[in-house]
Structures are given as structure tokens and as C-alpha cells.
Amino acid sequence: MALMTQGEFARRKQRRVMKGRIFYGLCLLAVMISLGMLGVLLFKIGLDGYARLSWDFIVKDIGIDWNWPFLHIDWAGPSRKPEEAGFGVALVGSVYVVGIAGITSFVLGVAAAVYLEEYAQRSGFSQAIRINIANLAGVPSIVYGLLGVEIFVRMMELGRSVLAGGFTLALLVLPLIIVASSEAIRAVPSSLREGGFGLGATRWQVVRHLVLPQAMPGILTGVILAVSRAIGETAPLIVMGALTFVPFTPGGPLDKFTVMPIQIFNWISRPQKEFHEAAAAGIIVLLVVLLAMNALAVFLRNKFQNRLEG
Amino acid sequence: MAPDVPLEGTATSIEGRALRASWRKVLPERVITVIMVLCTMMSVLTTVGIVLILLFQSLPFFGEVSFIEFITGTRWTPLFQSKHFGVLALVSATVLIALLSMFVALPLGLLSAIFLSEYAPEKVRRIVKPVLEVLAGIPTVVYGYFALLFVTPILQSISEDIFVFNAMSASIVMGVMILPMVVSLSEDAMRAVPRSLREAAYGLGATRLEVSTKVVVPAALSGIVASFILAVSRAIGETMIVTIAAGQSPNFTFNPFVPIQTMTSYIVQVSLGDTPTGTLESRTIFAVALVLFVMTLAMNLLSHYVVRRFREEYE
After folding, report:
1. Cα–Cα distance, A134 to A191 (Å, whole number)
2. What is the DSSP string of A249-276?
3. CA A144-A147-A150 angle, 5° bins
4. How far away is chain B from the Cα of A105, in angstroms, using its nearest Cα?
5. Does the CA dihedral A74-A78-A83-A88 come out positive or negative?
6. Which of A78, A235, A264, B221 has the smallest number of Cβ neighbours within 10 A?
7. Each residue's pLDDT tens digit, B236-283
8. Is B202's Cβ below 8 Å from some Cβ in A?
9. What is the ipTM of this complex?
10. Which of residues 108-137 of B touch A (CB under 8 A)?
């Protein structure tokens, strides 16, 4: 191998350093573009929707008449005029559907996670279930809509109702909740369980009084994130048969419904500019709701971390 | 294992005594265990339900339409008078959009991941990561709005020949949508590469670029490739962006500037219409969904396989 002269070495080194700088610039640019996209997206939507956004736009259709557990809502009648379109029906629909989905998937998901972490041995059975859950998380959401339409709408004869929609979304987010809850339960130190067993507690008593209270903030964080995923889901509910135009807010669990993203989709697919503005205003409402839920999840996560450290 | 005998397998002697001591204590234990097993089975039932429904609704369809015509035909007109059931028209559109979106997500995602893992100080990471999580949490209908009412007008101002509904606009926005996933998974893989490897390379006089591209990326390659495959799978199954921005015209074409229809947006189109149940037309969506399900499942299994088979283990 021929030896390099001092000058040759310096020249090559300078070139390598230059290449490094260019590459650094490219990486920085990539991150800037990625973050910039979020900025442009939010700016565009804010610009389009700002003018339409008002308290009236959100609550106009909700005439509150408490009829526990469902609000009974009287409404003047469907408006197809773009400038009068309101978001209240969709907002209330989302609250009901996502509420049902959240409660159902919370109960099922936490029970499954407790079973997998605290009861089942690491055998073929529980291993198979874990693999199954991992694969379920990769199934396109629209396929869950077909599952919902066959099982809940037709076989269980719930119709295209709030209940059927809630159950469909519950199955969709179930894998997320099981995974998050499993992680939270696994993070509980085993000394706690051993202490419980040492005092003669049964397995369920240990789970109920020691493990679950300790894991609950982590579980709730996972549930909130899963629910915020459910709020934004459109495709499965369209396939399940949620209507794109519903004049009344649902008064009971078997009523027809629409949700925020479907209402937004409906407005986007119309040609009039006024509807597009309404869609942008609807998106702002949707994003604010999601942001609030994420903030709550972050808050819970921080509290949880402090408790483990303290 | 038998789920109705919860305690035997793992029982300590203390538990065993408690078990004998009182049926009042044991009975609730058993009931609760059975309930929990049932809840756990829900996830299995979901999988079984999806597979059975797709198969049982598709079988009568394939009784009337030849399977060969279905998977090799390129004309898709099940809702018209002269019916053709060539699913390739929908598959080609789906693949086109998935591939084009990777042209956006792959370079941006990989470079961003390298930046976060190798260059960015901890402070910057702590800001950028949550912002990317926000990007990942935005509902897809919002991306659809962005594609149709922001990106498409820009494309049209560049060239008059571009249609209102086109694959290009949907693909660009789809790329932005899957970007956070690529960044997050690739960065995890890169950060799992041990420090000692980097330090050895720096010790030999390598620059940061050389460490990144010749040491870290090759060592993390299995994780990076797996993240790309998962991203493609996400893009294939994504619905709202393509329904809103790419159109409803099943064209067998790889021209990104004309309206097309993906598998997912066909399912939405039929669901929104009033096709009577039990007809051949209504069964088409299950056959299409079966193709979609098989494609995404194959990609997901492939990504797991890549991680397991090609992982570089450093101890």
C-alpha cells in the first residue's frame, strides 16, 4: 500500500468533513420538513375553519333536556344549508359511541391483561394469544367495520345503532388496551405480590387490592390513548353503517347516529366552499378534544412516574 | 392448560392452605378466573370472527365469479350493467399509492431517525418526539382534508392536466401520515445499537456521517426494514385519505395524476350506497376485504420475520 502524503491526507480529511456537514444539513432538513408539515397542516385548517368556529356551531343542535343516561335532544329539523350546518349532533354521537367503546374495551382489556400477566403460565396458550393480539393490531380498521356489520348489526340485531358502533370500536382498540395494561401490570414490583401472598391473600385479593391500584394510572393512560384513537376513526363506522347525515342526536342506545369524523367527511365530500369551512371548523373541534385527551394522558403518566420514584 | 383450575399450577403451599381453608374464598376466585378467561378469549374470537366472516361471505361470491377472473382481471365494474370483477384494478391503485407514499416517508423518515438518534442533543429529542407523536395521532380524515384542499390545488397550479382526484396528492399526504411511525420505529432500532460500536468507530477516526451510515444503520437494518414494511402495510389498509383525495374510479393504471380507486375506498363506496344485502354486489366488498386482509397480514408477518431472522445481537 502506498503511503499518503501529508497534503493528500489533509485533502481527504477535509472532504470527509465536508460530506459530514452536508449530511447533517440533510438530516436537519428532513426533521424540519416533517415538523413543518404539522405546522402547515394546522395553519391551513385554522385559516379555513377559524371564521366558522363559534360556540353556536358546536352546541346549536343540542337542546339540553336531561333524561338520564341519555340527553334527549329536540332540534328544529335538519338543515341542508351550508351556512347553518352545526356540529352538535356529531359531537354528542361521538361522546356516546366512544363512551360505550371505552367502557367495554376497558373492562375486557384489563381483564385479559390481568389474566395474561397474573394467572396464565407462559405456556403455548398465552403465547398464542399474545401473537394473536400483535397481529390484530395490524388488521386495517376498515375490516373491523365489516366484522361489526355482520356480528353486531345483523347477527345480534342491534341495527346501525350507537351500541353497535360502540362495540365495533371497542374490538378495534382492544389490542391497544391489552398491550398497555399488560405493560402497566408488569411494571408493578413483585415484592408487592409476595407481601400479599405472605399475608395469606388469595390471588384475586392480591390483584384487586395490590396490583391493580398500583397499575391503574398506567392502565388509564393506555385507555385514554386508545379512546383518542377511537374518536378519530372514520372508516369502520362508515362500513358499519353510521349515517353521514343524521338530523337528531341519539336519544337511546339503539338510535342511529353520526360521529365527528364522519360528519367532517360528509362536509368535505360536498362541493360548496361553505361546507369545506364547516369541515375545517369541525376538525378544529376534533383536534382540540384529542389534544385535551393527550394532555390528560401525559399528566397521568408523569404522576405515575413520580409515584414509582417517590 | 385448563383454565378452570387456576391455582394448582402456580400454587405455593400458602395458597394451597388458603384454598382448602374456605370455599367462600375459593368460589369467587374460580368465578373471576372464568370471567377473565372469557374476556381474554374475546381477542381470539375477534380474529376467528374476522376470518370466518370474510371467508363465508366470499365463498358464495366465488361460486358465481371465477377466482381466476377475480385475481387476474383488470376491469372492475361490479356496480354497472356489464359486470367485470377484475380486482387488479383496485390492487394496482392500492400498491401505487403505498409505493409512492414510501418515496415521501422513506427518505424523510430515515434521515429524521438518524438525526434524532445520532445528532440531536437530548433537549431537541425531548421536543421533537412528542411533536411527531401528535402527527401520528391526527385522525386520517384530517389528512384527507389536507390532501384534497391543500395539496391537490398546489399540484394543479403546477400542471393543468392533473385531475381533482389523483393518486399523487393522496400519496404525498399518506407519506406524511406514516412518517412518524417510520421515524419512531427506526430510531428505536438505532438507539438499541450499543454505544461501544460507535465509540470503536470514532476511535478509528470515523466522522459522524461514517459512524451513522457504516456502523449504526447496518447494525439496525433489520429494525429499519421492519418499520418500512409495517409502514407499507399501514398505507395499504388506510382508508380516508384515499377515499377523499384519490377518487372513486377503478382504473388499472400506474399514472399518478388520474383518478383511481383503492380496495379500501371501494369498500367505503359500497357501504355508503344502498346496495341490498345478500346480493352479489354486496358480497364483493368481502372478497375485496379478504384480499386486503391477506395482503396486510402477509406484510405484518414478514416484518416480524425480518426482525427475528436478521437481528444483529450484540452483547
Report:
1. 29
2. ---STTS----HHHHHHHHHTSS-HHHH
3. 150
4. 10
5. positive
6. A78
7. 999 999 999 988 888 888 888 888 999 999 999 988 887 777 788 888
8. no
9. 0.88
10. 108-109, 111-112, 114-116, 119-120, 128, 131-135, 137
